[in-house]
Amino acid sequence: MQVLEDAPLAPLTTLRLGGPARRLVTAGTDAEVIAAVRAADDAAEPLLVLGGGSNLVIGDAGFDGTVLRIATTGFELDGTTLELAAGEIWADAVTRTVDEGLAGIEFLAGIPGSAGATPVQNVGAYGQEVSSSITEVVAYDRSAGETVVLSNAECDFSYRHSRFKADPERYVVLRVRFALEDNGGRSTPVRYAETARYLGVEPGERVEVAAAREAVLLLRSGKGMVLDPADHDTWSAGSFFTNPILTPDQYAAFLTRLDGRTAPAYPGPDGCTKTSAAWLIDQAGFGKGYGTGPATLSTKHTLALTNRGNATTADLVALAREIRAGVRAAFGVELVNEPVTVGVDL
Q: Distance from the CA of 327 to the CA of which of 35, 257, 312, 337 falls in 20 to 30 A?
């Protein structure tokens, strides 16, 4: 276990923003993770759990407590059953499953961050979510002071949400277990229209898992969603806002604000309708590359707020607030940020 005082946090996040941690603890085993959590809890000290830093906005003042960086490793594949340590690099794990010809997470290629973060956010992209393949999550329960195993149903997954996100102070994910599919090297059904068009198939068809992964990587790269230190469009937290899910009444009110435009609309849960945050942002006047300061929208995708190299978190937050207010004024829809915020209020 490595312990550093007054440690910079910005280099540990994909936004490269945020002040220092009073103490940074890097844990390489589950036992070290649990020991660090218990030590912080016993001392009643604030604790921030850090994985890949890809879905995190840290305030400029940093974190006045212990930041626990989970650096555990472990990739165990038994047939179609996969167990990942929380610290495993997610993109690398996807590549390894595709190399084995297994399906289930192939459309989640190129997503930055660690495996332990995927159930927290119910990570999803291109028509696939981890909730469709996760069977169990092994976590340390800070309230009970013990390690627990939560089934898929107990994780309470929904769109970009889970039990872990709803109660962020309670659980620290240690391991994630998946049930993958052996379809003879074929993918799960292609569900996302853009991916289907790119692959030249109809939605619902299957393709080679390697072809699915490559298509997703190319599509993500075109939107600046694959990390590249030389490309400031990738200095982001990915999609900054979730796609709004509107109740029937909210959707009816939304339709009255369109002025003849046709907004994307997809069936949501309980009779709700999901629309596109990217479309709303663009139509509200915030196009690709919007902004003149050190924090701007990506030149490749309106959902990514980026650090152009010398931004502060305050710069990024000001841009996020401007965009959120503009969408609210134009369409009466309140955008919700997807990244976790620490020491900063949007």
A: 312
